[in-house]
Specification:
This protein is an alpha+beta fold and about 475 residues long. The protein folds into four domains: about 80 residues, Uridine Diphospho-n-acetylenolpyruvylglucosamine Reductase, domain 2 (2-Layer Sandwich), CATH 3.30.43.10; about 120 residues, Uridine Diphospho-n-acetylenolpyruvylglucosamine Reductase, domain 3 (2-Layer Sandwich); about 120 residues, Alpha-Beta Plaits (2-Layer Sandwich); about 90 residues, Alpha-Beta Plaits. About 35% of the residues lie in helices and about 20% in strands. The chain has 17 helices and 19 strands. The strands form four sheets. Strands 12, 13, 14, 15, 16, 17, 18 and 19 form an eight-stranded antiparallel beta sheet that branches. Strand 18 and strand 19 form a beta hairpin. The two termini are about 30 Å apart.
């Protein structure tokens, strides 16, 4: 095959055992086959591959770190597609600390991008549990969110420019470092969040920020979700720009974390229905942030919003508190089957949504257990549902479509979104057609047809 000659025999994988890591989603929900795995080492090689593929009508599935949760990076089962791994495009091309930008290639992991910024005395604030293996290209292709969205925005907000290879093998050199560029259609935003269906991101210009000098982290216990909402409004008012994270977790979620994750404990007197992890940060010294956190929490306690609270007294204690939140997904795996929902609703309606969703879950599967956590400050709820204790996992997972449809109907009643940060991929493709208007779907198809007329880029994903 001509495409293999572009990268050389060492980077054209055909051995079934060596191909396997590229063909299986990490949870095992999606498994595919492929004619070939290609690992290009430059943007030019990506362009040459796509030029050949477009002329020959060969479908290409771009793949980053293979950490996606909706199957967008997995090929179909019919062995007709070629997986294009961006892992070898892993250079940090430049860091401009003074200008607050850096240019990195698509295969650089999120952790490597964070480290490059740190070496320059700056901060790249995007943070995900998979940051050691997820790659910048995939992060941008899915418009990933994470725990810093409240203060810094999602991946889209952190990218100033892109380098993209189009379906026919042309290279768009859009690596601008401008914060203002109002010269026509924003092509960058077409490709961010498009899941590799419109073009392949090969490099990006990313925003950098001042590193926090002081950080305060607290874990608060709250009786009700309405109290969580009240505490958020108070933290937002008192913390203003210093409020960098406001994560919420149900009591059951932290029960699973402390049951299954070693070296975790809730450092509060009694168990509570709800918990909030709050982080405030500042680039200035002087103890202002700790004072602001203490004052805000004292006010919340006086108003009976919180029932108990602990403020981390050291970096190790702060890391221990964050581990409780970051271990939520891992803890679930030990409870059998889990049907996951990554949704968003208006912040004011989160309590109502969770109450209604709980009732709906019970009608679909008696005894199923919602595991609720997420980024309260931006409305992103990870509404995962674990199987009833002792249930058959395989039988429970056959309810996936019924459960998802029921929960998504509740999301729709609150004018929410069925995908807050994970994307559409294969998993939510049919659901997208239910919740987007015919006009929206038609406009999306016109964009797809214009940029990928032969339909070779990640077919069967999103649309």
């Amino acid at each position: 095959m001509h495409m293999a000659s572009v990268v050389g025999a060492a980077h054209a994988i055909t051995d079934p055992e060596q191909m396997m890591p590229y063909l299986r989603e990490m949870r095992g929900l999606y498994n595919g086959t492929a004619a070939l795995i290609l690992r290009p080492g430059s943007t030019r090689e990506v362009a040459d591959i796509l030029s050949i593929a477009n002329d020959a009508g060969v479908s290409i599935v771009p793949q980053g770190g293979n950490t996606g949760l909706v199957g967008g990076q997995i090929p179909s089962p019919d062995a007709s597609e070629v997986v294009l791994s961006l892992a070898r495009l892993n250079s940090v091309r430049s860091v401009d600390a003074a200008g607050g930008t850096m240019i990195v290639e698509a295969g650089v992991t999120l952790a490597e991008a964070q480290a490059a910024a740190e070496r320059a005395g700056r901060l790249f604030p995007l943070s995900l549990p998979s940051e050691g293996s997820c790659q910048i290209g995939g992060v941008l292709a899915t418009n990933a969110g994470g725990t810093g969205v409240l203060a810094y925005g999602n991946a889209r907000a952190l990218a100033l420019g892109l380098e993209v290879v189009t379906a026919n093998g042309e290279i768009w050199e859009g690596l601008r470092a401008l914060k203002k560029d109002n010269t026509g259609y924003d092509l960058r935003d077409l490709f961010i969040g498009s899941e590799g269906t419109l073009g392949i991101i090969t490099a990006a210009t990313l925003k950098l920020f001042p590193r926090p000098v002081e950080t305060a982290v607290a874990l608060a216990a709250l009786p009700t979700l309405e109290d969580v909402a009240t505490l958020f409004r108070l933290a937002e008012a008192r913390g203003a720009q210093s409020l960098t994270a406001f994560e919420f977790m149900s009591g059951f979620t932290l029960e699973l974390v402390t049951r299954h994750i070693p070296n975790t404990r809730i450092p509060l007197r009694e168990a509570s229905p709800w918990y909030v992890l709050i982080e405030m940060s500042s680039a200035s010294e002087g103890g202002v942030i700790e004072t602001a956190m203490q004052g805000m929490l004292a006010e919340a306690s006086e108003k009976n919003i919180i029932s108990d609270v602990v403020i981390a007294g050291s970096l190790a204690q702060a890391q221990a508190l964050w581990k409780l939140r970051e271990s939520a997904s891992e803890a679930q795996r030990h409870e059998g089957g889990s049907i996951k929902h990554d949704v968003s609703v208006p912040i004011a309606h989160i309590p109502e949504f969770i109450a209604e969703a709980g009732a709906v879950v019970e009608t679909v599967c008696h005894g199923a257990r919602p595991v609720v956590f997420g980024h309260f400050g931006d409305g992103n709820v990870h509404y995962n549902v674990s199987q009833p204790p002792g249930a058959d996992k395989a039988a429970y997972l056959t309810l996936w479509n019924d459960m998802t449809s029921a929960v998504h109907d509740v999301v729709a009643r609150f004018s929410g979104s069925i995908s807050a940060e994970h994307g559409i991929g294969q998993m939510k493709r049919s659901e997208l057609a239910r919740f987007k208007s015919p006009l929206e779907i038609a406009m999306m198809r016109k964009i797809k047809d214009a940029l990928d007329p032969n339909g070779i880029l990640n077919p069967g994903k999103v649309l």
